[in-house]
From TrEMBL:
NCBIfam families referenced in this protein's UniProt entry, alphabetically: IV_pilin_GFxxxE (TIGR02532)
Superkingdom of the source species: Bacteria
GO annotation terms (biological process): type IV pilus assembly
Pfam families: N_methyl (PF07963), PilW (PF16074)
Signal sequence region: none
Protein name as it appears in the record: Prepilin-type N-terminal cleavage/methylation domain-containing protein
UniProt xrefs under InterPro entries: N_methyl_site (IPR012902), PilW (IPR032092)
Length: 359
């Protein structure tokens, strides 16, 4: 019996079946790819929001050490008592307005936050880098401290210290430490300002006050020039009057703390009645620099996205629910969906350094 091949009809049927199977496999593969892509996008947005929020909370918890009754700074030539933690509200103007890179007023509704943060090693060994030194002679002017030699390590570009009695404090700028055995002398820019100290009512600095390095940190939302997307930024600050009339200004280019963060909101919790009950704190948007008794808590909220837009079942990079989020008192302007899933990180941090009872 002679073998026979496939008929034309059989070949066409086989080809049709193969095409259907390949099309189904391709569709399944593409659907799986979309699921993986969208899942990675959502995970990215969660990670970006969480990392930004945890970085902010870590800085907030360190802020204000030794400054529970305020921080004295020199503003326009005169001493002024301010909060070591304050910030602007994106919905406000004037001194309560938020700012971005270079202290330019913000326009997108995001807030900003200023923190006075001590060196992590300020409770370390005397004269070690970043460690506190003890004042050994009361009065105003240059401070005599119990440091036998000048602290080691390269000084920062704009050295700043705080002299504190662990309640009120004074910000010393352009500081330098010179060895004058058996002690050392701390010189600073505000030396000649009459009566400037952490305790004006006592006539100056007191024996036993601690002197330690600090940084002024400014957090805000800005544009990362490397990718054109919004990011959480941090700038180092210095004393000076900005365009909104606040006592600190950025002193250099900011760094990116976390990419793909599009909104940053801060609420400040005040215990005006000194109840000590966190459930009774009154939260407000924006806090002026002028000293405000009873600041006990900060609620930080950040909104972040993934790197690339999500895709729908037609592989279009837009999903109808991918819209900006309303957070605190910021309601973004209406607009078309852009395909970016938003993750919200919101957490409240207590300010242990601003509660005198915890010292």
């Amino acid at each position: 019996m002679k073998p026979r091949g496939m008929t034309l009809l059989e070949t066409m049927v086989a080809a049709a079946l193969a095409t259907i199977i390949l099309a189904a496999a391709t569709a399944l593969l593409m659907a799986g790819g979309r699921v993986v892509h969208n899942t990675e996008h959502v995970a990215d947005s969660h990670d970006h929001a969480r990392l930004a929020g945890e970085t902010l909370l870590s800085a907030v918890r360190q802020a204000g050490a030794g400054m529970s009754e305020g921080l004295w700074v020199v503003s326009s030539g005169a001493p002024q008592r301010i909060n070591p933690v304050f910030g602007g509200d994106g919905a406000s103007s004037g001194v309560l307005a938020s700012t971005t890179t270079g202290n330019v007023p913000a326009t997108d509704g995001s807030d900003d936050l200023w923190l006075v943060v001590p060196d992590r090693s300020y409770l370390g060994r005397d004269c070690a880098p970043g460690a506190a030194m003890t004042v050994v002679k009361p009065g105003t002017g240059s401070l005599e401290v119990n440091c036998v030699g000048a602290p080691s390590g390269a000084p920062p570009a704009n050295p700043m210290m705080v002299a504190s009695n662990m309640k009120s404090a004074a910000l010393l700028t352009q500081t330098s430490v010179t060895s004058t055995p058996p002690t050392a002398t701390v010189n600073y820019l505000e030396t000649g300002v009459p009566g400037f100290s952490n305790a004006p009512h006592k006539g100056g600095f007191q024996k036993g006050d601690l002197v330690y390095p600090v940084r002024l940190l400014h957090f805000f939302i800005g544009t990362n020039v490397n990718n054109g997307r919004k990011a959480l930024m941090r700038a180092e600050g210095r004393p000076g009057n900005d365009v909104s009339g606040r006592p600190f200004v950025d002193m250099g280019d900011p760094v990116v703390v976390q990419d793909y963060v599009e909104d940053f909101q801060v609420a400040f919790g005040l215990d005006a009645a000194n109840t000590g009950d966190p459930t009774r704190y009154a939260f407000q948007n924006g806090l002026k620099p002028e000293f405000t008794p009873g600041l006990r808590s900060v609620r930080v909220s950040v909104v972040a996205t993934g790197r690339t837009p999500r895709r729908d079942n037609r592989s279009e990079a837009v999903l109808s629910e991918d819209l900006p989020l309303t957070v605190e008192n910021h309601t973004p302007a209406p607009g078309a969906a852009d395909g970016y899933f938003r993750s919200l990180f919101s957490r409240r941090a207590e300010l242990p350094n601003l509660a005198s009872a915890s010292l």
